[in-house]
Design brief:
The chain is of the alpha+beta class. It has seven domains: 1-77 and 136-238 and 296-355, Rossmann fold; 87-134 and 444-579, no CATH class; 582-653 and 663-694, no CATH class; 704-718 and 745-871, Immunoglobulins (Immunoglobulin-like, Sandwich); 877-918 and 953-1017, Immunoglobulin-like, CATH 2.60.40; 1055-1072 and 1086-1139 and 1148-1254, no CATH class; 1260-1407, Immunoglobulin-like (Sandwich), CATH 2.60.40.10. Helix content is 30%, strand content 24%. Strands 11, 13, 15, 17, 18 and 19 form a six-stranded mixed beta sheet that branches. Strands 25, 32, 34, 36, 37 and 38 form a six-stranded antiparallel beta sheet that branches. A five-stranded parallel beta sheet has the order 4-1-5-6-7, with helices on both faces. Residues 240-256, 369-383, 1363-1379 have a biased composition (Low complexity). Pfam families: Ig_TPPC8_1st, TRAPPC-Trs85. Residues 227-300, 362-390, 927-949, 1362-1381 are annotated as: Disordered. Residues 286-300, 931-949 have a biased composition (Polar residues).
Length: 1408
């Protein structure tokens, strides 16, 4: 049994009734004849036959009846214009009915109905509008008439003449309308007819004899008054027709003189007249309009007919279909199939291909206009009413627009396919449709209705839609198809959804809901929006909820743009509901416990939901529901994630306005502005009604965990970790001196203002304003719990403006007039001075795990509130800087500062300590430091003794008697503490100072904080360089380059000093310490030689080796510290203005700066050794390094300072930790069950290998005599040229054995670029020497020169073997080789790349 075809694919029957018929029907209160007959469609149980004579039963056989005059008026309208009117008309019907649909759906949902669970009213309306289209189209033949019924009544004066007039009438159709159809004659015989029944029978026989057997006599009673109404199916809606002045006639009306043309023929077409036609019959509609007057008894969905009349009309319709229409269509199919089959035979196809390849006329090669209507084998000439063949392009263009595909494409093959489809002969129909599809003449839209489900059907649907739109133009704006393309796509979509079984349509094979989306494309029309909506509805039935939500969203967006707000709101709510449904996740319950999340917690999609809620809020606001809009807008004020996209980003921007490289703009500004406007309007119009809504902000601004209470002694700035470190350092320092603790007061004083530092963070990406910000402080006593005390005064901040994502700390002052215990519970404010809000400042208590019940479930301790105890003032010390302006310092500058100290308590202070950060360099001016040398001219060199310890400096006890009139700081006393700040580190810095005090010995300590922020900028760029010296007076040359990078003023270099434990430096040449102009540099050179008087370097090296050996063995750390060390210092200064480095302030600053540099370097080199052990393993100075101190001055600004720079490392290293490392590598260690322990041990070992204490370098430096010129007269023969090669041992401790090998070939012999000759060495070419530490030897070589030229001296090789120091050799057992013992460190040295030392021999004989 074939599937039921859509109603729009049923046979179209046109009716032409005489005026007397309509008069009879009007008299009985009946609608026009086409509407009466339409009530009897579809017919049940109709059987058709295929071309193979196979019976095909149809459970339902639909027909479409219409008036010929209505078709004539509509067919002349331009198809593009008609399609546009149709789309607008469907949209207007949806707009008119959407509110009633919403009420109906709400009522059904409330009552639990099931009517609209599998269908939607808006899609049913669209389907009815599409099915009601009966106007023929030039692209398909479904609406072309299949049959023409000529109807007269016996109430006419002359029924035969009336029938003759209808037969001879000329029809006004364009030439592309295929009028191959069945002509049928109907005679209506009402009971009140003047003709008796026998005469009516005679009239019927005469009609059959004259016009054929396709005739019928329909007797009707039609009583008066009309009988009671009978319900009938609702008629499909029809598009209202245009005025007759907009569709000029193409053919003249019949003449009134009674002369008629030959039946079925049409006279030649005259030119179109510009004069308007006479108005035709009123348009046929189901709904009365202002211009049409229907009979009073007509009710739309009912009809006033007796049961006998209903049976008579039903018998007529069935006999018309079974006895006339179906047999005639079967006959057409048989005859057309013969013609189609003959054209598909091989000779015909070959002939067609030959004609196509070798040329033919345009008329023969192009498909002709529908000419099969004139075939006498189908319909006789007397029964035809079709146009003759007309290939005139001008006539076609005059009827249809060029945009509607020109002439029609309805040919005989297409009509064959359509008739076969209607009759159920699907085998023949599919083959013909396939042929048409391959020829590009349609068929892809019908094949999905006839074929079995397969993936190919989706391709057919895509092809059908692609042929409508064609290739889209390449343009930046989004392409929108023309109206006729949109309408044809809508028709295809309705046919597919109606004609394919829903279960198959939604299967994974077809996925028909995607067809509807493709048919909708990007058009902004209500019908296309319903395509998206129905696709979403089908996807929801299918279970694809996310896809359904997306398409609901698109449909709502399109409907909102067209102004259909009720339906748009419904779709927005559907999408919102679907996006909020959680995705089922089959996860273990342990997952939710580990993530501390609830399995029912689901927030939806934050990238989409805000956009939907915003649209709903705007729609509610525009429709008058301000309260609902305010709730939606308020719900949108949420903290957005960093990766969240713009919620309105689902429509693609084809114009490239949004760059993917830039972050998307935040919608918070739009949401906030809409909320402010809506809420302000709501308060102005509704008064205090907003209070009953229970509005509460979904966001919070106060950060309860970060909110702190600050007392007058606490500092606001500074890192909390820094203050904790200072307190920990004090506890470590005092633990060995006493048991007194450092008490954190945590209490405020009476009549003293303290602050609640409320941390507020703006979670939005837009500026917000909080007014009347304050905190709620309540008395926590048992008898007055929860009541506000009059003794508490809380500050109120008028207005706080927070920038986007801004975090600020707002201090709110609180003052109490008596001792009291307070609890700060809430923070209150007015959001934009509109909505009062309150936020709790309680922090959730810790999770309890004490009992089994607590461990099995989540149990938390009570919330923690901010509690403040206010007591009488005791020991209080306030500290602040005298000058708190912003400091801008140069790197290394000395800055004198003063701190005011005030005893604001009631008890005296006898002991006062100062503690600053480890990297802060401070010197207290309270002690007389005039301990420098008494000589008026300080020497240019000195010895500086250093403790060589990495331990941080200890807290400094301030002698009150030096800065105050008495050793006790009494209550209300004030004192100034002067100190010098050395700005050693560039960048933004915080000077954090902790003042610790107490009343007397044995009393607990209290503290107060003070901080100062300053900025340090670099003004000098100092770099050092190192090279080996060829001079025997010094081993190295240390270069210091100073560049002025300030760029504003000259910088005077007043002194340049060097410090080292093993090397003494002396200036080379005569250096003048002049001022350095901006962007200029000056360079100084120092010669470095071993310091023979230094003896503490060996002790330092042995200390480090011993400590690292213990670390590698895993022995417990020894708390001993490095031994002291002596540093030799050399000064380069102008005149006698030398600053000795041993002055207390300078010595203190140098020690602090060196400690900071060494601590950072040690932490980077040994990250796996705990930092607390560094002070007992590593010393402050490496004896081999040379430090440089540069003193500078800005005379005009009266600013001065110094910069300490860790210079290069001099001398040779011989892997001092070699034996220790080898022992650690071969040591048998305990196995550990933790792999991390072994990895940490290996990391420590690798760090020790690479550290500066295990440095290994080649100790030999080679100097070849370069640039010497020898004059010789070669007329006397060859000559010997002496060459001196000096070998220097740069090691201060180890001797070396050296082998110098000379070769007669140079590395550049194979190069064509060198101009030097190879050295012709003569005599001894291998020299062996043993060089003691810091000594050198000179090897004398000879060249046997036979010709003048430049001879290269780069063909040498030095092999070095490092021996043990003489002290170790003498202390060891006797060696068979004497006093030498190798350290097994060997090196091979060749000339460096680019070294071209040479000797030049000049022939003086030629010069003479």
């Amino acid at each position: 049994m074939p599937p039921t075809l859509p109603h729009s694919l049923s046979p179209h029957v046109c009716i032409l009734a005489s005026p007397d018929v309509q008069k009879v029907l009007d008299g009985s209160g009946l609608p026009p004849l086409p509407e009466i007959l339409q009530c009897f469609s579809p017919l049940p149980q109709i059987t058709t036959r295929t071309t193979t004579l196979t019976s095909v039963p149809h459970t339902s056989f639909a027909l479409r009846f219409s008036d010929v005059t209505e078709i004539e008026d509509a067919v002349h309208e331009d198809e593009e214009q008609r399609a546009g009117r149709t789309m607008d008309w469907i949209g207007s019907r949806i707009s008119e009915r959407c509110e009633r649909w919403m009420d109906m759906l709400e009522t059904e949902s409330r009552e639990g109905g099931k009517m609209w669970r599998t269908r939607t009213p808006w899609w049913e309306e669209v389907k009815r509008c599409v099915d009601g289209d009966h106007v023929p189209s030039s692209v398909e033949g479904w609406n072309h008439p299949v049959s023409l019924i000529l109807a007269v009544s016996t109430a006419a004066l002359n029924p035969l003449q009336a029938l003759q007039d209808l037969t001879s009438r000329a029809f006004d159709f364009p030439p592309w309308v295929d009028l191959t159809s069945l002509r049928y004659f109907l005679i209506i015989h009402p009971s009140n007819s003047p003709l008796a029944d026998p005469i009516a029978e005679a009239l019927f026989n005469a009609v059959k004899k004259q016009y054929g057997l396709h005739s019928f006599l329909l007797p009707l009673q039609l009583p008066s008054p009309p009988p009671s109404s009978v319900p009938v199916p609702a008629l499909p809606p029809r598009l209202p027709t245009l005025s007759s002045q907009q569709s000029p006639s193409l053919t003249p009306q019949p003449s009134t003189d009674g002369s008629s043309l030959m039946p079925g023929l049409t006279p030649p077409r005259p030119p179109a007249s510009p004069m308007p036609r006479q108005p035709g019959p009123p348009p046929l509609t189901n709904k009365p309009t202002e211009s049409s007057q229907l009979p009073a008894g007509y009710q739309g969905s009912t009809i006033s007919l007796t049961q006998d009349d209903i049976q008579q009309i039903g018998r007529f319709v069935r006999e018309f279909v079974t006895m006339s229409l179906v047999p005639w269509m079967e006959k057409c199919v048989v005859e057309w199939n013969e013609s189609y089959s003959s054209s598909r035979r091989l000779p015909s196809r070959l002939f067609s291909s030959t004609r196509r390849l070798f040329g033919a006329s345009a008329t023969m090669s192009s498909p002709a206009t529908p000419t099969h209507g004139s075939s006498p084998s189908v319909s006789s000439t007397g029964s035809r009413f079709t146009h003759g063949p007309n290939n005139s392009v001008s006539s076609i263009a005059s009827v249809t627009s060029i945009s509607t595909m020109g002439g029609g494409s309805v040919n005989q093959q297409r009509r064959l396919a359509e008739f076969a489809t209607i009759l159920g002969d699907y085998k023949l129909a599919i083959s013909v449709w396939e042929t048409l599809r391959k020829e590009g003449r349609g068929g892809s839209d019908i094949l999905p209705l006839l074929s079995a489900p397969s993936p190919a059907l989706a391709l057919h649907a895509d092809h059908a839609l692609a042929t409508l739109t064609g290739p889209q133009p390449r343009q930046p704006a989004a392409f929108e198809a023309p109206a006729h393309v949109q309408y044809r796509a809508l028709v295809y979509a309705v046919r597919w959804e109606s004609g394919i079984d829903r279960q198959e349509f939604l299967s994974s094979t077809l996925e028909g809901e995607r067809w509807l989306v493709k048919a909708a494309s990007s058009a902004e029309e209500p019908p296309t929006a319903t395509l998206y909506a129905h696709a979403a509805f089908l996807s929801e039935l299918k279970g694809a909820r996310r896809r359904a939500a997306l398409w609901y969203l698109v449909a709502a967006d399109k409907l909102e743009k067209t102004g259909i707000k009720p339906l748009a709101m419904h779709f927005f709510r559907k999408a919102h509901s679907l996006y909020q449904d959680p995705i089922p996740k089959e996860l273990s319950p342990s997952f939710w416990e580990s993530e501390d999340r609830s399995p029912v917690q689901w927030e939806g999609f934050p990238a989409v939901l805000p956009g939907i809620e915003h649209e709903l809020g705007r729609l509610l606001y525009t429709t008058g529901d301000t309260a609902g809009a305010v709730k939606y807008f308020m719900g949108l004020l949420k903290s957005s994630a960093p990766a969240t996209l713009h919620p309105h980003s689902y429509p693609a921007h084809a114009n490239g306005a949004g760059s993917p490289l830039l972050p998307p703009p935040s919608p918070d500004k739009v949401y906030l502005e809409d909320f402010r406007v809506a809420f302000k309007h709501f308060k102005e119009t509704e008064g205090d009604r907003w209070k009953s809504l229970g509005l509460q902000l979904p966001i919070t601004f106060c950060q309860a965990k970060q909110t702190r209470v600050r007392f007058p002694g606490d500092a606001v700035e500074g890192d909390s970790a820094t203050w904790d470190k200072l307190e920990q350092d004090w506890a470590t320092f005092w633990s060995s001196r006493g048991k007194e603790k450092l008490n954190k007061s945590g209490k405020a004083a009476v009549d003293e203002t303290f602050w609640v530092d409320l941390v507020v963070r703006n979670p939005l990406e837009v500026e917000v304003s909080l007014s009347t910000l304050t905190v709620v402080a309540q008395e926590a006593s048992a008898d007055n719990a929860g009541t506000a005390s009059e003794a508490v005064e809380v500050e109120v901040i008028d207005d706080v403006v927070l920038g986007p994502k801004d975090t600020r700390t707002i201090p709110i002052g609180i003052k109490c007039s008596r001792p009291i215990s307070l609890v700060v519970t809430h923070a209150t404010y007015d959001f934009f001075a509109l909505l009062p809000a309150s936020e709790s400042l309680a922090v959730r208590g810790r999770r309890l795990n004490d009992t089994p019940v607590q461990r099995q479930d989540k149990v938390y301790a009570p919330d923690v509130l901010i509690k403040i105890d206010v007591e009488e003032a005791g020991q209080r010390l306030h500290a602040h800087f005298v000058d708190d302006r912003h400091l801008m310092l140069a790197q290394g500058e000395y800055k004198h500062q003063r701190v005011w100290l005030t005893n604001s308590g009631t008890r005296p202070i006898n002991e006062l300590w100062l503690l600053a950060g480890e990297e802060d360099e401070l010197w207290i001016d309270a002690v007389d430091d005039n301990t420098g040398p008494s000589s008026s001219s300080p020497p240019k060199s000195e010895i500086l003794q250093s403790s060589n310890k990495l331990a941080p400096r200890k807290p400094y006890r301030i002698p009150l008697e030096n800065i105050h009139s008495s050793p006790v700081l009494a209550p209300e006393d004030e004192v100034q503490l002067p100190f010098i700040l050395h700005a050693a580190h560039h960048g933004e810095q915080d000077l954090c100072i902790l003042f610790i005090f107490r009343e007397s010995v044995g009393a607990p300590f209290r503290y107060t904080r003070v901080t100062r922020r300053y900025e340090v900028r670099s003004i000098l760029n100092i770099t050092t360089s190192l090279r080996v010296s060829a001079s025997p007076e010094q081993s190295y040359i240390v270069g210091v380059e100073v560049e002025n990078i300030a760029g504003t003023s000259n910088i005077q270099i007043t002194q340049l000093s060097t410090m080292s434990a093993l090397w003494t430096c002396s200036p080379l040449g005569s250096h003048t310490l002049a001022s350095v102009p901006p962007r200029q540099a000056v360079e100084y050179s120092f010669g470095a030689a071993p310091w023979q008087a230094g003896t503490s370097a060996t002790e330092t090296t042995e200390f480090v080796a011993r400590k690292l050996q213990a670390v590698l063995k895993g022995d417990p750390a020894d708390p001993s510290e490095p031994p002291p060390i002596d540093l030799t210092c050399t000064h380069l200064a102008q005149g006698a203005n030398i600053v000795p480095l041993r002055t207390p302030a300078t010595r203190h600053f140098l020690h602090c700066g060196r400690r900071t540099m060494t601590a950072h370097a040690t932490a980077n080199a040994h990250p796996d050794i705990p930092s607390r052990l560094h002070r007992s393993i590593f010393p402050l100075y490496n004896p081999s390094t040379v430090d440089v101190v540069i003193f500078w001055e800005l005379s005009a600004q009266k600013r001065a300072g110094h910069i300490l720079l860790q210079g290069p490392t001099l001398g040779a290293g011989h892997a001092a930790l070699k034996e220790i490392i080898e022992a650690a590598e071969t040591m048998k260690v305990k196995r550990s069950m933790y792999a991390e322990t072994e990895r940490e041990r290996q990391a420590i070992l690798e760090a020790v290998k690479k550290c500066e204490w295990n440095r290994e370098t080649d100790p030999i430096s080679v100097f070849v005599q370069d640039g010497s010129i020898v004059e010789h007269d070669f007329r006397q023969g060859p000559c010997n040229v002496p060459v001196a090669i000096t070998l220097r041992n740069l090691s201060l401790t180890h001797p070396c054995r050296v082998v110098l090998k000379l070769s007669g070939t140079t590395p550049g012999d194979d190069s064509t670029t060198t101009l030097l000759l190879p050295p012709p060495y003569a005599g001894r070419v291998i020299h062996r020497h043993t060089i003691t530490p810091s000594q050198s030897v000179t090897a004398q070589a000879k060249l046997w020169v036979t010709r003048p030229g430049c001879f290269a001296l780069d063909s040498w090789t030095v092999e070095t073997d490092v021996g043990e120091p003489a002290s170790e050799v003498s202390s060891s057992s006797a060696s068979p080789r004497g006093s030498w013992r190798s350290r097994h460190l060997r090196y091979v040295q060749n000339p460096q790349a680019g070294d071209r030392s040479c000797v030049t021999v000049v022939d003086v004989g030629r010069l003479g």
